[in-house]
Design goal:
The protein has helices at 14-32, 114-126, 166-184; strands at 53-58, 68-73, 79-84, 89-90, 94-102, 105-112, 132-137, 142-145, 157-160. By secondary structure, the chain is an alpha+beta fold. The chain has one domain (14-184): Gyrase A, domain 2 (2-Layer Sandwich), CATH 3.30.1360.200. It has a 4-stranded antiparallel β-sheet with strand order 4-1-7-8. A 3-stranded antiparallel β-sheet has the order 5-6-9. Strand 2 and strand 3 form a beta hairpin.
Length: 185
């Protein structure tokens, strides 16, 4: 069993921040042996099995430090904003990912585990008016959406229309659920 923990959103000192960064990179390396970009599986898994990784970042002011980074969403008409350089939720916090039919197309739904739900509740309660950058590493790493926090989310579920094709969405969902299963095992 592989355990990869992440103290998402919590910064109680230098060691916690360093361990969060290390755990995030270890997960990417362990699952994808190459930062999740169209990677093949490792170990005894079937060759060609793809993983997807997801990270949620909180919008913040550009403070000019290493703790702020620029992100862009919506490839056709990019919207650029700054986020905290550390994700507050990752693939390790997911319970399930689903492709949903929506009016005029499709949507992705991500459901967080108990820890992820508590973190999402805390962040959405205290950060109304800010955006959440939903970044995904799959064949083409990018920000899939940047919904505005308008109210508290205590359900642990986020549904959004991603900036991707249906085919990409299907690969993302399949890769996320494979990664979730691997993390749980």
């Amino acid at each position: 069993m592989m355990y990869i923990g992440c103290l998402s959103g919590e910064r109680h000192g230098r060691m916690t921040v360093k361990m969060s960064i290390i755990n995030h990179y270890l997960m990417a390396i362990a699952l994808c042996a190459g930062l999740g970009v169209g990677c093949k599986s490792v170990g005894d898994k079937t060759p060609g099995e793809n993983y997807s990784l997801i990270m949620l970042y909180l919008e913040q002011n550009n403070d000019g430090t290493k703790y702020s980074r620029e992100m862009a969403v919506y490839r056709a008409d990019p919207f650029i904003f700054h986020v905290n350089s550390e994700p507050f939720l990752t693939t390790a916090d997911l319970e399930k990912a689903t492709l949903m039919e929506a009016r005029g197309g499709f949507a992705l739904q991500i459901q967080f585990n108990r820890h992820g739900t508590a973190v999402l509740d805390s962040f959405t309660t205290s950060n109304k008016g800010r955006r959440i950058a939903i970044f995904c590493q799959f064949t083409e790493p990018r920000v899939l959406a940047a919904p505005m926090i308008t109210q508290r989310n205590a359900t642990g579920i986020i549904r959004f229309t991603p900036d991707c094709s249906r085919e990409e969405a299907e690969r993302i969902i399949s890769g996320l659920n494979t990664a979730i299963k691997e993390i749980k095992d």
